[in-house]
């Protein structure tokens, strides 16, 4: 039967198309079908009553619904499977969020360095990369600080002893990052970054490498599926390294770069 269905290059899609609502999955399904070479008959369900009647008639809970020939393929995800495309698993473990984040902050730091000095590969670019990463990571945590703090409590040693620390942490990380971007008030940014970075590194190392616990990392917010481990440890080690470097610069052990 599948061979017959796949050889039929005509498809019908029933999707919601109301004045106050356009079904995004319906549009995505229509795009998939057209890219796959199907002649698509696009049928809109223009009222809630019409939508509910369609669902009852076909015994389905959601729209859009795609038909090819006389066979109902199903909704958007079923269509992707039918076309041999991957369907994202919202619960799947992934490093994509942090890979994208660090790539973008690195490129932004290089762009800023180039704009200021004409050279993308400078010591200042390396400093900005860490500082920009801290700011963006804090922003992601602060999107839902309650969710972050709850996940953070699973492994952070200080937060377990003093719950408010889980709410303070993203603000402290963001403040330290902003001051490091500016190269100002090192007497605030250095101890803050050193403090939260050290506690974080010890906490992650204990949870992952000593206790062997399998946890999700709160580093990119409380709703992420990034596993706790090397990436989380890297975030904290970056803060420690940046704090140590800024302290060395402030104390005159190394010369401050010129721009």
TrEMBL record:
Keywords annotated in UniProt: Membrane, Transmembrane, Transmembrane helix
Top-level taxon in the UniProt lineage: Bacteria
Location of this chain's protein in the cell: Membrane
Domain Glutaredoxin: 21-71
Positions of the Methylamine utilisation protein MauE domain: 122-247
Transmembrane segments: 93-115, 121-142, 162-182, 188-209, 230-254
Described function: May be specifically involved in the processing, transport, and/or maturation of the MADH beta-subunit.
Protein name: Methylamine utilization protein MauE
């Amino acid at each position: 039967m599948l061979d017959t269905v796949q050889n039929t290059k005509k498809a019908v899609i029933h999707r919601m198309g109301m004045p106050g609502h356009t079904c995004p999955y319906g549009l995505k399904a229509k795009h998939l079908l057209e890219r796959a070479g199907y002649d698509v008959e696009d049928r809109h369900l223009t009222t809630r009553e019409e939508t509910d009647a369609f669902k009852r008639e076909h015994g389905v809970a959601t729209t859009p619904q795609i038909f090819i020939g006389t066979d109902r393929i199903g909704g958007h995800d079923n269509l992707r499977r039918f076309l041999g495309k991957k369907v994202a698993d919202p619960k799947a473990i992934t490093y994509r969020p942090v890979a994208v984040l660090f790539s973008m902050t690195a490129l932004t730091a290089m762009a800023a360095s180039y704009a200021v000095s004409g050279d993308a590969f400078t010591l200042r670019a390396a400093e900005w990369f860490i500082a920009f990463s801290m700011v963006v990571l804090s922003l992601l945590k602060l999107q839902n600080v309650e969710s972050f703090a709850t996940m953070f409590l699973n492994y952070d040693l200080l937060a377990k002893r003093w719950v408010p620390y889980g709410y303070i942490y993203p603000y402290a990380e963001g403040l330290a990052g902003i001051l490091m971007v500016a190269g100002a008030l090192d007497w605030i940014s250095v101890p803050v970054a050193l403090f939260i970075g050290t506690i974080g590194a010890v906490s992650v190392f204990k949870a992952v490498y000593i206790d062997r616990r399998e946890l999700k990392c709160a580093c990119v917010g409380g709703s992420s599926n990034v596993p706790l481990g090397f990436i989380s440890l890297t975030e904290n080690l970056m803060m420690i390294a940046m704090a140590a470097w800024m302290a060395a610069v402030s104390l005159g052990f190394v010369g401050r770069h010129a721009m």
